[in-house]
Design a protein that fits this description.
This protein has helices at residues 9-12, 53-59, 80-92, 142-149, 167-173, 180-183, 211-217, 251-264, 299-302, 318-322, 326-334, 351-363, 367-370, 409-427, 443-450, 454-464, and strands at residues 19-23, 28-31, 40-41, 48-50, 73-76, 97-100, 116-119, 133-137, 154-155, 190-197, 202-205, 225-233, 235-236, 240-248, 269-277, 280-291, 310-317, 345-350, 375-381, 396-402, 432-433. It is of the alpha+beta class. It is globular and about 70 Å long. The model is unreliable at 1-16 (pLDDT under 50).
């Protein structure tokens, strides 16, 4: 199934106005025939720097449709060099820069008010597989990566539930999936990076080369460097997926069975969600086993000891399974739901506190609170060593999310306020949050979020982006004096 959320940037650029120079006094671009009036000439680019209304409006929005910050230009890079040049240019002209992939942030994290947004979709090359790894450009989607590696019998260890997210964007926040229970975060499966730092350097980094930069970039929210290319770890891909959806009537049994399955590693992927029905909450445990077509897994073994009340089992080719969300998303787009505000929330609750917290959090949730969206609930081992992906101090944590859908901006604001209340309550349990969602955060809130890693982040920022050029959207750092 072919699926594409956004028009190709090359098509979108038809009729775009190219920016030729920047007027630092009026904070505006000089375009076309007016360029002879002066200004700081834009760098020579392999791609294009555009300032037309359509391009700016797209860059001022995201999947959340809640926060809108309008840039003064959008870079559609034709090469990695373009990113380096535009970061240097922005730094010398007092502008800020952020990179935007598929625009799936929920609260303006990749937006820049009065700055430059880099649209990474024009850099989406996936190189040939080399051994058990592959180099990919930041704008490539996970769908493109998997489609390119499967002919070699390989895939990435962790895939998203929704495959049409950019590699660079996901690695910048961490990246979760059902296989995180076995393989960690998507960012934990990166072998090497090519980045552009906020002080205008093009550098390679890895666990053994500029490790401080490597760790500051993966899960670093674009605060120190922008990902240009990543070398991803690959492993053998099985041809088929044996997917089970098991229904539970009560939360405690659902969570206890998830804990048992996590400890045993019985499934290759493990996730789950709560759905509010007219009869009350129903809890769906989702377990997947990948297998060779000649060796179908035993349902008797997979279901042994589980206490579900209903089951649905589907077998599908791996590629079709990986894109399982596409039909539902296509339907949402057709119904106009994709363009509504999505004030999503994800927090990570320590296992020891998860039962009481999640039970309390859903006790009073109504369809009006969620907009009909699902409530993800599933465990994962806390094993990532990336310092800026903040996880609870617990061996196991539960993802607890509310994938809200709002019909109006006013309802969206109420839901954002609800997110903030859930987040504040979760802090008492030792929880952390996934920083791509719709949770308002002040500078002091960010200091609490990073905890003992805060001084380290300050040091990395000073080393690689001392002028605070990169990614102002999250609001982590105030402008330098």
């Amino acid at each position: 199934m072919t699926f594409q959320l956004n028009r190709r940037a090359a098509i979108a650029s038809a009729g775009a106005w190219a920016a030729l120079s920047f007027d630092p006094w009026n904070r505006s671009w000089i375009t076309g025939a007016h360029a002879r009036r002066g200004g700081n000439a834009a760098p020579r680019l392999d791609g294009e720097l555009v300032v037309d209304a359509a391009a700016l409006a797209e860059a001022a929005d995201d999947f959340g449709h809640i926060v809108h910050r309008t840039p003064i230009a959008v870079l559609r890079p034709g090469s990695a060099r373009d990113i380096l040049e535009i970061v240097r240019y922005a730094r010398s002209n007092g502008l800020k820069v952020a990179m935007r992939g598929q625009g799936h942030a929920r609260f303006g994290q990749a937006q820049v008010d009065g700055g430059i947004v880099i649209d990474s979709r024009t850099l989406a090359t996936v190189d040939a597989v080399n051994g058990n790894s592959v180099w990919v450009q930041a704008g490539a989607t996970w769908s493109q990566v998997v489609s390119s590696t499967l002919p070699s019998g390989l895939t990435v260890p962790v895939v998203n539930n929704f495959m049409h997210l950019s590699v660079g964007g996901t690695l910048s926040v961490g990246g979760f999936g059902g296989a995180t229970q076995h393989h960690g975060l998507q960012a934990d499966n990166v072998l090497e990076l090519e980045v552009v730092t906020g002080d205008g350097r093009s550098l390679k980094c890895s666990p053994t080369r500029r490790r401080d930069l490597f760790e500051a970039t993966l899960g670093g929210l674009g605060q120190c460097a922008l990902i240009v290319r990543a070398r991803l770890r690959l492993h053998a891909a099985q041809g088929m997926a044996h997917a089970m959806q098991l229904t539970y009537l009560d939360l405690q049994t659902f969570m206890d069975d998830q804990r048992m399955l996590l400890a045993e590693g019985r499934f290759d992927e493990l996730s789950g969600q709560a759905v509010l029905t007219p009869q009350g909450w129903r809890f769906i445990l989702e377990g997947v086993v990948f297998y060779d077509p000649t060796a179908l897994p035993s349902d008797e073994v997979l279901l042994d000891g589980l206490r579900h009340v209903a089951e649905n089992v589907v077998d599908a080719e791996y590629s079709l399974w990986a894109h399982r969300a596409d039909p539902a998303v296509a339907q949402q787009i057709a119904l106009g739901l994709w363009g509504l505000p999505h004030p999503w929330l994800d927090v990570f609750i320590p296992d020891e506190e998860a039962d009481d917290f999640i039970a309390g959090a859903i006790a009073n949730l109504t369809t009006a609170d969620t907009g009909g969206g699902p409530v993800p609930i599933f465990p994962f081992p806390v094993c990532s060593n990336l310092p800026f992906v903040r996880l609870p101090e617990s061996d196991v944590a539960f993802v607890f999310g509310i994938f809200r859908l709002a019909q109006t901006p006013e309802i969206a604001q109420t839901m954002v306020d609800g997110n903030r209340a859930v987040y504040e309550a979760s802090l008492a349990t030792g929880a952390t949050m996934y920083p791509i969602d719709a949770i308002p955060m002040s500078e002091s809130n960010w200091e609490v979020h990073y905890g003992e890693a805060w001084p380290l982040l300050l040091a990395r920022k000073e080393t690689y982006d001392r002028d605070h050029v990169l990614t102002p959207g999250p609001g982590i750092f105030p402008p330098p004096c």
